[in-house]
Amino acid sequence: MQLKIRLIVMNFLVFAVWGSYLTSMGSYLASVGMGMHIGWFYSVQGIVSLFMPALIGIVADRWIPAQKMLSICHFLAAGFMALTGYMGMAYGDHVTFAQLFPFYTMSVAFFMPTIALDNSVSYTALTAGGYDTVKAFPPIRVFGTIGFICSMWIVDLLGFQHDYRQFFVCAVWGIVLGFYALTLPNCPVNKNVEKKSFVDTFGLRAFSLFKDKKMCIFFIFSMLLGVSLQITNGYANAFISAFASVKEYADTFAVQHANILISLSQISETLCILLIPFCLRRFGIKNVMLMAMFAWVFRFGFFAVGNPGNGVWLFILSMIVYGVAFDFFNISGSLFVDQETSPEIRSSAQGVFMMMTNGFGATIGTLGAQFVVNRLVYSNSDPVAQIPGWTSTWYIFAGYALVVAILFAIFFRYKHVRPENGELKTEN
Question: Which pTM value belongs to this model?
């Protein structure tokens, strides 16, 4: 139980760091005249995820224990995020893209690998403690989502969701986690000193998973589904806040406290995470992934038809299905990768999964979303006239998610074997 509590605190802090700015940064950028650059700020998370999680994972597998790498990464990320906040404070409404983006990019470059490291530290510690990761990890991961929610509420209730102070909140969480990570259980590195090939020496063997047809198709569709991951994080707050220009919606709770409304998505996550072990055993990874894909269709579709007034219930439904959309993909996917890889490449394999989803997928998704939003929404200078553009935008995203779901159902060949001993089983 003590081990689980320690991992709970770690997960809480990791996602509190992210929650302090991920859903509200887009609104801040729009408020300082950088609405057309929102996609770049969110896509950089994907760009650095193309290589940083894999590289940091290799270091954690081969040279520096994962819990120490977690500490180092968070100290560096916090420092650069504090500089981002300082630039916003120093230049106010006149801050430019060139002043914010470099420091923000460096912070994200060191933060993104910590999500994979969080998984690696958790799985390693639980395995060493004799726990079944499929049963034990999801309830622990729930507290990561709770940390994300707490951070969102703090930023909203303190009035920081439209200004630079959210970056300082992020930096404080990061420093706390940097110290806490040093107290976590040790994750042994691979100290085998026998002569190895270049591939083994640098931990690149995890990329050999692409030779397995099942894993290759899984990673490809992980990338395609990853396209959807950051779209609502980048644009949901800006979208809901845009209704402030419409008189009948300006004073609604949804518009005034968009971050709290959006936090219902994360509250939904806490419930959906607990369903993952049952769903994986009962339905298998293919059907669980399909549930996530169709949930993305509804996530975007409900935004398209809702509004902050009498249609706010549709926004609420969008938040509820987000738990299935996000967790049934991310958590189930990471557990699947863990089950399909050997311990010596565990961190590297999680890094590859992160690269495909939050790397290639999220980069393509956020830049594509920026193109669509800029063309349909921000190309119009009249705030009221932008609302129909938002509606068309969400329909386009919903259509994309539907196509991916149909293709995945056709091409991912998988037969689920319901386990008798609690372990996840698969057959090609």
Answer: 0.81
